[in-house]
Amino acid sequence: MPWRKPHDVNLDMKERAQRAYEVWVSEVVVQQTQVATVIPYYNAWMKKFPTVADLAESSLDEVNALWKGLGYYSRASCLLAAAQIFVRDYQGRLPNNAKCQRLVLVTGVTRRHTQENLRGRNDKRGKQSSGLNQVE
């Protein structure tokens, strides 16, 4: 799976933001779709929209054209809408806290997934995770 990379504590804020974008896209693309089916779509997506800013600047037609064949087109339009919010309101970074619950409807993340993340889960180091895709 191309989005699986080892955790790197040495990433700077920009690199962590990029990593969060990659993980977020993979989470949305794989919803209700088999992983083997998703891999070529994910790779094509990241080639066309390598950053959240690139996605935010695209059109819905461009996004839907790339999504063609995956179904559930609302996921693609939600990714685009959320990317535009992230660029406009969060300097191109994904938010990392519960204050951003209003984005749940936009990001395509399921209610159960969001509730689990917002409650906070322990990561491997025993630290409490407090947000969606964490960027500090």
UniProtKB/TrEMBL annotation:
Residues 114-126 have a biased composition (Basic and acidic residues). Residues 25-111 form the HhH-GPD domain. Residues 114-136 are annotated as: Disordered. CDD domains: ENDO3c. Its cofactor is [4Fe-4S] cluster. It comes from the Eukaryota. The keyword Plastid does not apply. InterPro entries: DNA_glycosylase, HhH-GPD_domain, MIG/MutY. Keywords: DNA damage, DNA repair, Glycosidase, Hydrolase, Iron, Iron-sulfur, Metal-binding. Pfam families: HhH-GPD. PANTHER family: ADENINE DNA GLYCOSYLASE. Belongs to the Nth/MutY family. This is DNA glycosylase. It comes from Lentinula lateritia.
